[in-house]
């Protein structure tokens, strides 16, 4: 047995899959489930999801009139590419070889596990990229990824009429004067009037949720006699919105690092309240990376494993200096077929 029998893409892929099976998925993975497609281009049809139009009356023996496909757009774009690597250096390799020679499993196992965990962190980086794009869609209506001279910009998923902002005393940060329930109700009814599809779920951060927990009009509505003295909890307020508006609110505060050593950032921004309909909002599509193409054609000596629907995990040996390189790559982009039924409100 040599080091390449222990450290290869197949073993890493199995290790990551087993570890990931116990992890709670990101919110975006539920709303935009993963889907595989060949190649780099993404094309899908986004319908207006508007109200049904009555079939036109007609006379017998007359030619049927042709109806226009109102509000149906074909969206086609090139999906962005992400790739990063980690190296097992000569010193680390020598340490592993000595442990193998001594047949010391107690030393060897944590060494290999650390290497597998490093590869797993690269795979998790793909999950972060996908979630960041999904939450950008749900908070801004567009996707913008920029780093090291690479700029991916996908605007125009939502119309301007689907995005609104509050001003003055209407801002939810003014917990004494604002009326969030009426704001939400207006958006829900506006979406239903325009599309026939009423939003049933909402997303916001802990900070935005805090405005609602402190809102005086909500407290008075829950208890008209002693509203301001009501003991407000997350569960109490969530049940209130469910009973009052038929709305399930998800408070989403997951964070990520834009780069190693950087400050943490939220996937979903503060001061935004997004209303969404039932069901999936789209899919997270994964294309074919160059590494996966090598796997399909057997054109390379590298070992390749595919995890998480379309993330390629690749290992190969470098002859000089003698190293083992682990590369993780993905081509991914969410689609947004239900975009027309989404409403985004900037509340403060």
Distance between the termini: 62 Å
Assembly type of the chains comes to single chain
Q: Number of helical runs?
A: 10
Kindly identify the CATH topology.
phage-related protein like fold
CATH superfamily: phage-related protein like domain
The share of residues in extended strands comes to: 25-35%
Which residues form runs of ≥5 with pLDDT under 50? 67-72
- Main sheet makeup: 6 strands, mixed
Number of extended strands: 17
- Assign a percent range to the helix content: 25-40%
Task: Give the CATH level 1 class.
Answer: Alpha Beta
Overall residue-averaged pLDDT value: 82
Overall description:
The protein is built from ten helices and 17 strands. The strands form five sheets. Strands 1, 4, 13, 14, 15 and 16 form a six-stranded mixed β-sheet that branches. Strands 7-17-12-8-9 form a five-stranded mixed β-sheet, with helices on both faces. The protein is of the alpha+beta class and 348 residues long. 32% of the residues are buried. Strand 14 and strand 15 form a beta hairpin. It has a single domain, classed as phage-related protein like fold (Alpha-Beta Complex). It comes from Dendrosporobacter quercicolus. This is Phage major capsid protein E.
